[in-house]
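User: Can you model how zinc ion sits in this protein?
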Amino acid sequence: MTDIERSCVQITAGPLNFLESWVPVELDSTQHLFSPENRYKTNLIRRSIQIRSICTEEKMKIILIGPQGSGKGTYAELITKEYKIPTITMGRLLRQLAKTEKYKYLQEDYMSKGILVPDKLTIEILKERIKKEDCQKGFILDGFPRTKNQAEQLDKITDIDLAIYIDISDETAIKRLSSRRQCEKCGKIYNIITNPPPKENQCECGGKLYIREDDKPEAIKQRLNIFHNQTKEVIDFYREKQVLQKVNGEPDIQAVFKEIDNIINIKNK
Ligand SMILES: [Zn+2]
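Assistant: Here's the modeled complex, given as C-alpha cells:
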C-alpha cells in the first residue's frame, strides 16, 4: 500500500483526531492536472474536506443549563427542530432504559430504592447514546451534567462546544412555576399565564385543577437553592473552558430563542 492509499483508508475510516495531524496532499506539478495520479489526489483532498465539514466544523454539542421555569425544555425542543440534532434528557433516558432487559437493574438497584444512578454508570450510558447515528451532527444535553464531577467525567468522553446558561431571577422562576396547575383527573399541566386552561380552574377533560405541592413558593425556593449551589461549579467549569454563554431568560420565548440561535450560529461560522 502506498502512503497515499494508506492516508485514504485512514481518512475514510479513521478517527477524527487523525485529521488534525493530516498533511494535505500536494498535486504533482510535473504531471497533467488530470493525470490519473493527480485525479486520485484531488479526490482525496475533496473527500477529506467533506469529512472535515461533516465531522469537525459543526459545533453542535450543546449543554443547556437553567433553573426550573427557565424554559430550558422548550428551548431544547426548538433547537432540535431548527438544527435537527436530538435532545438527550438524562432522566428520561435512564427511565426508558430501565424498562429494557439489559438495563432493568437500573430500576431494581437504584431507581426503586430512590438511590441516584452513579455518575460512572450514567456516563457509560451517555457514551453509548452519543455514538448513535442521530448524534453525528451533535446533540443537546438537558439536565446533565448537574455537578462538577459529572462535568469532569463528561469532558473525558466528548468535547462540549457550547454550554448555554439560561439565566432568570428567582422571582421570575417562582412566578412562572407557581402559576402551574395540574389536572386532578388526567394529569395535564397548564400554566395560567402562558398556557391557560379553557375554563378557569378546569381542565379540557373536565377535571379540577390544583397546585402541586412542589409548585408552592416555599418548595420552589428550596429547589432553586439546591440548583444554584450545584450548578455554580458546573458554570465555572464551562466558563474556564471558554464555552459558556449566558442568556437572559427573562424575555418571551421568541426573543430568548433568537439569542440562543445567534450564539449557535456564531459558534458555527
Ligand atoms: Zn384533565
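A couple of observations from the model: The radius of gyration is 24 Å. DSSP finds eleven helices and eight strands in the chain.
User: Helpful, thanks.
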